[in-house]
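Same chain as my last thread, 288 residues:
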Amino acid sequence: GSYPDPADGVMQASPDAYEWADFLIKTAGDFGGNPYQKELLSLQKLVDQLGRREVAALLAKPGDESYSTAESELADKIPSTLEGELAALQAKVFSNPADVDIIHARMQAFHLPVTKNIIKAVKDYNYNSEWISFNPENFTSWIRLATGQGSIRDAQYIIHEAIEIGELLATDGFDPFMTEKAYSELPGGQQEALGEQFGDDGGLYDSSHLVALEYEYRFLARQINKLTGLNLSFRDAAAADPDRREPAEKLLAEDGVTVLDQAPAYRHKQVEMVKLGPLAMQTVQLPG
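reply #2:
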């Protein structure tokens, strides 16, 4: 998207913050039968009143390197209503039991061995735990699946989160479903220790996320191979994905160097597959 010029007196927020602002502006009307349309329309109206830059400033986190004093001062002038509206939306997602049944049916139609308990675990982890921020990409996938739509990208999302949860559950003493309230009631030292265990470089999130990336791209490779007759590996699929750089950077890294940037074979795959990636994602739909 287009970002404000830093020279205009308000420094640019992080790309994630602008993604949020764009999401709030456009998502309300994107999906037919959206069970969260009322809340999203309320957010959209608020965003229209505040402006995209102001929303991005509010959503940027003070700890982000890109967060500036100017943005902090601007955010102080914005009503706290936006944060309240976001919290209300997240609470409604978590309290709507119909989502789990609908998404489970969609995943079964795609011949994926995903149980209702797994879908519920993804919901608990993404929308009611201390550990995961409410994120527009995940929520958009959740809406598509919960409204009987969904593409291969949305199935990838469920697979990724399920694998990540499984990795976290295998760690003694760590609860991936700990709520914000339960976390807030822990002694300060325990909060700090758990936060470091999960979020530090090389911590539980990094390691579980890497395993989840591999499994979701194994899934994507299988779907593209069925569609095209090719024989892609999960690394090929990551290299070819035109929409996401992170999987290639993490799954193709050797000694801190991304193979995609260094190896002619992977550069070739990216060039050859860049058109196939979105084609496959649009074509391999969940059966209706």
